[in-house]
Amino acid sequence: xxxxxxxxxxxxxxxxxxxxxxxxxxxxxxDISQSPQSGTSNDGPQSGAxxxxxxxxxxxxxxxxxxxxxxxVVRKGNCGKNSISVSxxxxxxxxxxxxxxxxxxxxxxxxxxxxxxxxxxxEIVADGLKPSSVYIFQxxxxxxxxxxxxxxxxxxxxxxxxxxxxxxxxxxxxxVAITVGVILLALVTGLLLSGR
Length: 196
What we know:
Immunoglobulin-like, 2 domains
């Protein structure tokens, strides 16, 4: 008689509750586990609860199946001595509309001191970084069902202090161009004056 009363109580709950005796609290939090009563065991006959359980799993109520797959493609864009531009592609299986991305990054070998950025775009610029340093980036997406797993770790390095020297290497080209321009201007002026 107690089994009948527990089943009648369970059938009065939403489709997320289970008649197998698990609390509705663990069910509502998205924790789904297969129990022997879900039709995978040969111990006894299947009850009506297992078909409700199956219906609940296939109806998309399971947050684990609704959360996005991990981001798999991450690229380094422009890089300065104190910043790195990072872009990525949407997860292979978004499982809904992506509401935002969470980007976690930290200096290599200093995982306990990390920064989190949340954005809706698929590109960010991480600034305030140290020159000539390697940073680890991980990204995950969020839908209405929650966050997916973080991507694998991607390592990107900032430019060294000498990055400014690349501007200096263009200095001779600028000086030559100005010199040629002044010489041409002098020649044209000389030709115009001698023509009078």
